[in-house]
Structures are given as C-alpha cells and as structure tokens.
Design brief:
Shape: globular
Strand order of the largest sheet: 1-2
Helix content: 40-55%
Low-confidence stretches: none
C-alpha cells in the first residue's frame, strides 16, 4: 500500500504540474478578465460585494493564514472555521482569489496528505492546518513562532505594522505598494531574529520556500497594495470593492507564481540583520 500510494502521488503531482504549465501558456494567449469582473458572477464578492464581515466567536477555529481566516469571517467558507471539506476549499479559493485551478487542487491535496485525510471524503478545522512544520513554519511575517505562541491564529501586531510601514514602491495611482525587495528584507529580519530568540527554531529549505510563497501572495493576489493588505492581514477582512489583482483567465498558476517566489527567496539576507538579532536576543533574555 505504501509503494502504491507513493507512485500514485508521483503521477498525481506530475499531472498537476503538466496541467499548470498548460494553463500558464493559455494565459499568455487568452484575454484578461475585465476589471470589476475578476470574481466570477454568482460567487460571493462578484462586483466587489462581499458578504457581511463577522469576527470569529468563542469556539470558532482560525489558523495562521489571513486569507483563509478572511474567507471564514465573511462566510465564504464555514464561519466557524470547522468541518470544511477539502473539495469545497479548492472551489472557494479559486473563485475568491483567482488562484489557478491547478494551484487550488494541489494545495488542498497537500493539506489532506499532511493531515492523513481523504481529499474527497474528509473535512478539517482551520486550526488543524497549523501543524508545526507541516504548512505552518517558524519566522512568519505575521505570527510569533509556535514555541513562543502555540495559538497560531493570534496575530502579532508589531510584525504586521512593521511590514505595512515597509513599502518602497508606488503604483500608477501613487498608492504605496510592497516590492519584492521589501519582502526579502523583512523576511531576512524575521529569520535572523527568530533564529536568535527561539531555542527551538527550525526552518528547512522547503519551509523557506513556503515562507517566500506565502509572502509572494501579497505581491500577486493583492498587488502589494498596503491599504488592501492592512484590511486583510491586520483585520482579516476583505475590503469592500476588492477583487484579485490577478486578471488572467486561468488564474495565478504555480509556474508563473514561482518567478515571484524565487525572486523573494533569493533576495533574503539574514546576515544583514545580525545586530537586530543580537538586540532581540538580549531583550528576550531580559524578559524571561
């Protein structure tokens, strides 16, 4: 059974990647979606009209991902954040954020494998996605490390405010936007400081790439726009009138996305933050 499972996963992943490349090529020749019509008609958020925002109540489940939490807060997925089917998640991520269908299939399948669940038959609670060093990892942009804050749904506001104050770019309308270099710089600081202050710190190459991927959604899906990001990452609320900045007809594919991910990751310089890491370690030691 183990060998069969490994082989079937290999062919599944190969099929997903081939599909993704095809969708990337089709995006090059098909017309982009019109502004104001990126969210599909009939789906929550069409025309920028998102369902009512309601913050989580006691007993609700949330996770370390602001985008998923926002979907629950607007009732796009279960408001409680519980008993969400992997298949349902695939559909709603695609329609809400315009990730490509290959992307939206791969990630829930990966999560199902991580939790040892059936993609087609089982469900999960959002908090279960925070299995440490599964998808969730140390040196996050928005959370303290698990060793310091076990509840990964808890936002660390100083991290978020620092990120939102970091943009060096402007869009054509003069709005402040985060750039690839901005994210690389902040990730470098997060990693250096976390390594110095968390005795249980770990960050494999896989999780470095995953961290850069999570960060890169801020540049792609959200266009790096600080005003929108403040609502999403600080309040976990989709702004009124918002739609994905990705207008390609087949959404954001992994092939296209990885260009941004690699640019962010290869720009990370932990050594530039050695002094900040030493100071954070001193403050941590003094507070214990």
């Amino acid at each position: 059974m183990g060998l069969f499972s490994t082989v079937s996963r290999f062919f599944f992943d190969a099929g997903i990647m081939s599909w993704d490349v095809l969708l990337t090529l089709l995006n090059l020749v098909r017309r982009k979606r019109r502004i104001g019509h990126v969210t599909p008609e009939g789906h929550p958020g069409y025309g920028g009209h998102w369902p009512e925002f309601k913050p989580p109540q006691e007993g609700d489940s949330r996770c370390s991902c602001p985008a998923l939490n926002a979907m629950a807060n607007h009732g796009i997925i279960s408001r409680s954040g519980r008993s969400i089917s992997f298949v349902e998640l695939n559909h709603h991520i695609r329609a809400t954020y315009n990730f490509g269908p290959s992307f939206c299939s791969f990630v829930p399948h990966f999560a199902a494998r991580m939790l040892k669940r059936s993609y087609s038959a089982d469900s999960f609670d959002l908090e279960e996605l925070d299995l440490h060093n599964g998808i969730e990892h140390d040196a996050s942009l928005f959370r303290l490390d698990t060793a310091l804050e076990p509840n990964q749904s808890t936002r660390h506001v100083p991290f978020i405010e620092e990120l939102l104050a970091a943009p060096t770019g402007k869009d054509k309308n003069g709005n402040n936007v985060l750039t690839t270099r901005d994210l690389s710089r902040i990730l470098g600081k997060r990693r250096a400081v976390a390594r110095a202050t968390n005795k249980d710190f770990s960050l494999s190459f896989f999780h470095k790439i995953f961290g850069s991927a999570n960060s890169s959604t801020l540049l792609t899906i959200f266009g790096g726009r600080v005003d929108d990001l403040r609502s999403i990452v600080l309040h976990e609320r989709i702004p009124d009138g918002w739609e994905s900045r990705v207008r390609e007809p087949y959404g954001l594919t992994m092939t296209h996305f990885n260009k941004t991910v690699l640019a962010v990751e290869f720009g990370v310089r932990e050594k530039d933050w050695a002094e900040a890491a030493q100071e954070a370690a001193r403050q941590r030691a003094a507070s214990v």
